[in-house]
Write a structure and sequence with these properties.
Order of helices and strands: EEEHHHEHHHEHHHHH
Structural class: mainly alpha
Strand content: under 5%
Largest sheet: 3 strands, mixed
Helix content: over 70%
Oligomer: single chain
Number of helices: 11
Length: 314
Amino acid sequence: MLASGNSSSHPVSFILLGIPGLEESQFWIAFPFCVMYVVATVGNITVLHIIRTDHTLHEPMYFFLAMLAITDLVLSTSTQPKMLAILWFHTHEIEYHACLIQVFFIHAFSSVESGVLMAMALDRYVAICLPLRHSSILTPSVVGKLGAVVMMRGLLWVSPFCFMVSRMPFCSNQIIPQSYCEHMAVLKLVCADIRVNHAYGLFVAFSVVGSDMIVISVSYVMILRTVLWLPSGEARLKAFGTCASHICVILAFYIPALFTFLTHRFGHHVPRVVQVLLANFYVLVPPMLNPIIYGVRTKQIRDRVIQGCCKKDP
């Protein structure tokens, strides 16, 4: 059934299929998904709590890490509860406006996460290449403005996605063959010329992710050059260790994100089940891995977690 708007018509709801091709296994697949979501939620809340309560961690690196944790919580929570409801309870229907809200949160906070990773790369560059000027360059004011720009960019750049889709007519097909509402998946149900939407999607992808990846790459090239010139092997090892966790987080985010983006547009021969599973990993794996990686690699956070666990022991 279609609902009429001022200049377009849209369905009352969509049907999310879950994981097409694995219908018989969806109930069991939901269990590892649930574990990953619980780890992501508990881990990111723990990181936020440690950073908030420990005043020695009120530095640029940890401010960006707190932003990353908030972004991961929003990104995973915008998809996982509905995904688990589909896989366990077969509640496949999602209301039209709820679907557009999900599109907005997924793409806006993916953009924010990319921007936060870029900001963290800049912080590592200044800390390693310009250590004596770190506090004067990345002042609290500069860090706050950079965080605000990253947040506003994500929200403002993605908002037109939902606005443009909401003004377009939909076909009678209301089935989205995956576990959550993604921009390209919703766009495929539109009965109109979507070339402008495609063009804007590519513009956002290249202007946001493309520019962030360039800044990250240049930052780490400069870091690598500086580290290799350090006279002490121990100093080089320490500098590499400082950056290792951030590089792991970058790879965990960009590899599934780029694969998902490319297969939606060009991967017509990639099996549907592979596309859907990787799209699920894209919103599940980074939020789960980020607090684990930083918890293990960052001594201050690791020590606080250990202290908290020891205090609970009898």
